[in-house]
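Whiteboard transcription, Tuesday session. T.W. wrote the structure tokens on the left side:
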């Protein structure tokens, strides 16, 4: 069989899957947050209107309020929210604050890997892989932990003092899906019989959990 034909057959039977933000085609593209145009990304402002301070971000100077049922707060640094200079750079940031006993509940980021740097305090963290193996760790200030793309993970303040961390994700729109609210707070609601069978609990308990999520 001719070599060219072999190469064509090989190319036809191999599928390469890419899962990442598109590469930028300009030096930068500061997002125009006032534009009504919807793209896979965000419209750029005129480069002549930006300067060095455009690329600085001061949104992490103050701690988020942890006065809530979870005892945690997430402050975003996202291109489409409050840090337009990140547009097309393939990154998103977040400041995470935790009261003692505070929890960022189990969730996933379908489009990004997350790297967490613990600035202050201590955390118990972990993720679960697709074989249901759990990878826990106790972090102290200065430690870094990576949550692989798309896997269920959480962070819990296991100390007696407030903690805070900085997260970097390799997508400007990583997405977040909280496991509990996605299942028990979905609209329209998922049938009680489905959730009862999935979790091995009575349908009456499913109803109670749903009410906790406003469903």
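and on the right, the sequence the group agreed on:
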């Amino acid at each position: 069989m001719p070599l060219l034909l072999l190469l064509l057959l090989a190319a036809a039977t191999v599928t390469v899957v890419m899962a990442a933000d598109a590469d930028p085609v300009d030096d930068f593209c500061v997002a125009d947050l006032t534009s009504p145009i919807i793209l896979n990304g965000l419209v750029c402002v005129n480069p002549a209107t930006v300067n060095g301070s455009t690329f600085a971000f001061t949104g992490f100077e103050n701690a988020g309020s942890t006065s809530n049922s979870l005892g945690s707060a997430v402050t975003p640094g996202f291109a489409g929210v409050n840090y337009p200079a990140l547009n097309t750079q393939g990154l998103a940031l977040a400041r995470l604050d935790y009261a003692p006993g505070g929890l960022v509940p189990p969730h996933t980021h379908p489009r990004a890997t997350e790297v967490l740097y613990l600035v202050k305090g201590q955390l118990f963290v972990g993720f679960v892989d697709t074989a249901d193996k759990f990878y826990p760790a106790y972090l102290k200030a200065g430690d870094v932990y990576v949550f692989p793309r798309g896997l269920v993970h959480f962070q819990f303040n296991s100390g007696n003092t407030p903690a805070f961390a900085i997260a970097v994700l390799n997508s400007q729109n990583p997405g977040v899906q909280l496991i509990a609210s996605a299942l028990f707070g979905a609209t329209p609601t998922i049938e009680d019989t489905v959730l009862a069978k999935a979790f091995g609990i009575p349908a009456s308990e499913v109803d109670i959990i749903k009410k906790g999520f406003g469903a």
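Someone added at the bottom: The chain has two domains: 47-175, 182-212.
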